[in-house]
């Protein structure tokens, strides 16, 4: 099963970083967040990806070309026509289709443009800026169990501010940035059947709008509720929070380190 990753947006809310690189290439722990996302899937045995490129897409192409050829120990023999010899592979066993989907194309349009590379079979989809400790195999099992066209992972992100509980005016508890209890949101990490492409009209379709709304209206959208860790890197503050977690060793999304 292939995994589609949308990596073409401009990331304007993270302009401090994205003025010089695409958001999926912003680093956490010295590696692009896109690498972290792919490691999550790879941990569960899914190593084939179709990445939708747009804004500064050449940066992503360049990274993976170098990642595949320059990782690990090398010998360079300038006396030979084939000057580069690799001693071992020091990278994940990934096969990656890097597909130009246009600078201005919206999320639904990017998904639609990946259709030739995903085939006529079940596929996974996520955004190029969100990480989680989700169990991908349990997610797929849930999708197969209900027989509908689409599964979205529903998450309850960490609250941005501390949460207080009261007895009258007396504070009975103070929780520093607890997981919000107000409701569930779209955390991406989709599993989709190929018929979902029929719900996307063209480049200017937002996947989060008409396609998902119509799938829900038709009774074809199911939610996999993930109670564990999930975070999206939308702002510089989010980036710093993830970096701090990485440096502290408390990095719940790094399931490949278990």
Could you characterize what this model shows?
A hairpin with a 2-residue loop joins strand 11 (163-167) and strand 12. The chain has one domain (3-257): Spore Coat Polysaccharide Biosynthesis Protein SpsA, Chain A (Alpha-Beta Complex), CATH 3.90.550. The chain is an alpha/beta fold. It has eight helices and 16 strands. The strands form five sheets. Strands 1, 4, 7, 8, 10, 13, 14 and 15 form an eight-stranded mixed sheet that branches. Strands 2-3 form a two-stranded antiparallel ribbon. Strands 5-6 form a two-stranded antiparallel ribbon. Helix content is 28%, strand content 26%. It has helices at residues 15-18, 33-43, 57-70, 107-113, 115-118, 136-146, 210-217, 236-248, and strands spanning 3-7, 27-28, 31-32, 48-53, 74-76, 84-86, 95-100, 123-127, 130-132, 150-155, 163-167, 170-175, 185-186, 190-192, 221-226, 230-232.
In the predicted model, the low-confidence regions spanning at least 5 consecutive residues are: none
Q: What would the principal axes of the Cα set say about the shape?
A: globular
Can you count the helices? 8
Query: Could you name the CATH homologous superfamily?
Result: Spore Coat Polysaccharide Biosynthesis Protein SpsA, Chain A
Largest β-sheet summary? 8 strands, mixed
CATH topology: Spore Coat Polysaccharide Biosynthesis Protein SpsA, Chain A
Number of domains: 1
Query: What's the average pLDDT?
Result: 91
Task: Compute the separation of the termini in Å.
Answer: 23 Å
User: Which series of helices and strands comes N to C?
Assistant: EHEEHEHEEEHHEEHEEEEEHEEH
- Overall SS class: alpha/beta
Question: What integer value in Å does the Rg equal?
Answer: 20 Å
What is the name of the CATH class?
Alpha Beta
CATH architecture: Alpha-Beta Complex
Please report the total strand number as a whole number. Answer: 16
Tell me what portion of residues adopts beta-strand conformation: 25-35%
- Which bin fits the share of residues in helices? 25-40%
């Amino acid at each position: 099963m292939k995994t589609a990753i949308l990596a073409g947006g401009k990331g304007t809310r993270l302009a401090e970083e994205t003025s010089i690189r695409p958001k999926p290439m912003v680093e956490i722990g010295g590696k692009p967040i896109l690498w972290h996302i792919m490691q999550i899937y790879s941990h569960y045995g899914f190593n084939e990806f179709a990445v939708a490129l747009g804004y500064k897409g050449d940066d992503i192409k360049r990274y993976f070309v170098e990642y595949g050829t320059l990782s690990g120990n090398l010998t360079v023999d300038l006396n030979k026509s084939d000057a580069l010899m690799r001693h071992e592979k020091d990278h994940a066993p990934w096969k990656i289709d890097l597909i130009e989907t246009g600078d201005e194309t919206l999320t639904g349009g990017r998904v639609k443009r990946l259709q030739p590379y995903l085939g006529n079979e079940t596929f996974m989809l996520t955004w190029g800026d969100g990480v989680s400790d989700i169990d991908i195999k349990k997610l797929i099992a849930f999708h197969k169990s209900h027989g509908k066209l689409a599964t979205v992972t529903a998450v309850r992100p960490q609250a941005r501010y501390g949460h207080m509980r009261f007895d009258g005016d007396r504070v009975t508890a103070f929780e520093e940035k607890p997981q919000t209890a107000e409701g569930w949101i779209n955390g991406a990490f989709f599993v989709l059947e190929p018929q979902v492409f029929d719900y996307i009209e063209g480049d200017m379709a937002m996947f989060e709008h008409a396609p998902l709304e119509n799938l829900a209206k038709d009774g074809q959208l199911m939610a996999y509720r993930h109670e564990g860790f999930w975070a999206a890197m939308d702002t510089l503050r989010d980036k710093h929070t993830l970096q701090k977690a990485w440096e502290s060793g408390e990095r719940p999304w790094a399931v490949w380190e278990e």
